[in-house]
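[Q] Does anyone have a clean structure-token version of this?
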Amino acid sequence: MSNKIMIERSHWDPESFHFGLESEYLLVDAESYRPLWHPDLNFEVLNQAMEAISIADLPEMGGNEIELPHTSNSPYVIEGYHLHDPQGKAVNILPKGMEIRTPVCDSLASCLSTFRTLYQRMAEALMGLSYKAVALSYHPLETEFYGEQEHRRHDFWQWAMQAMLSFGPDINISVPVSLQERMDLHDLNQKINYYAPAMTCFSLASPFYAGDIWKVRGRVCKSFRTHRRSTYAPAVEMHPREHFRFEFKPFEMTHRLGDFENYFLLFLTLLLDDTLTGRASDQMRIYDLGAVARLGFDAETISERANALLQRAAVVLPQWGFDPKPLKSFEARAYFHYTPADDMLMWYAHANRDLTSVLKKLSDLED
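[A] Here you go.
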């Protein structure tokens, strides 16, 4: 049986772009900053607090899905491992954390502004439960989760267990009909396979595993989340029957609103530019993401791909009415081969290897 109910949007301009942002958060104790997980969290308690948040002044929530056991069309979703009754109906969730899902927005500026408001209201509600939301892409202490397979297909079951430890954003863009008509989805998938590892590199932000720095053969690495998810999860989900919605998934979580904006701008560049020539198979994407997770911009050919994207963004985005100037911060990351994970490692070192200091810095949204 289906555990999702689609809520249609009342109005849709077929010749406009539309945007939506989904972002997942680790929850911590508000006083000690101890990372929490499903043994500490309760679906009903979290859901009741989120449903009490007023959203009447925000854009309509059409275009989203209600996912059982949630029963309201809310931008706040408790993420975790679903438990089902014998008929396959979702009746409970073992929570891993919180997710914000913006409504479908008619402009990128509206999407980011709405997200900011939703984040602030979520943070206030969580404080009432003595929790804070932290933008970290992988649980810094827990390493494994096991749940019963129930009715799940085997590959979905394996991913559902992996996802219990991972936190990330989904970047959603629907393109105008005039652009849809000339899109070759197979070729687009191969293009995304080639450039997605470089795009992900700008966001690498989970250098911790099992309570300490993640290392491979003694070398400090950038992202356990990308290392773990690359073999399980796709880079993009294409939904041509949902107003040609493209959902880009490999970016990591960030506490910077400007990073979210740049995630959209990079993905727009990839969708809109016809001159980028790189193409790769699913297998090569997995291989490259594995290298990026360890080496960042030093992985083979990744710097060249990143710079190619930035150069084309400066040309193609203005042609479609988008401002590429926010990408200046990403140009600096590419030039210095610097990732958000490097910031986290520096904070960790300065705090004498205390994760609490890192979690505190990631618990507020930088505007």
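[Q] Thanks! Anything notable?
[A] The mean pLDDT is 95.
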